[in-house]
Amino acid sequence: MIAFVSFVALSCAFIVIATAELTLGVLLRIINRVTLMLFAVFFLAFLLAILVVICIPLTVMVISTYLFARFTVLVRTEGRAGISEWATETKGHFARAVGSKLKTDTNGSATSVGKNPKPNDDAGPTPVPPNAPNAQH
What we know:
By secondary structure, the protein is mostly helical. It has one domain (2-102). The chain has helices at residues 2-78, 81-99; strands at 102-104, 110-112.
């Protein structure tokens, strides 16, 4: 009888320990997966922050270098008039960047906002009104 009671008690203890170990193993796997996911998220966030810290100054440097080079070329070729030409050109670049947002038509196609259409060059010469001072009769 003592053998049977020992067998039942040890069997119950084995089942409890095995269940606890299995549960603990599942919990550890879940914790490991959560830890791995958190590590991946923090790593990607860190990588994104590093890219932002590197890319913003690089972009500013490239744009500044282009604007300075363009300024130098225009001042060398045009003289003092190159300064106003450079200012107009630079304002045009920024105006196109800001005004290039897309607006949707009623039919659903996207059209550009803020850009003036080019005049039709095939229309021929502009007619001169008959009462103009240099009009030929």
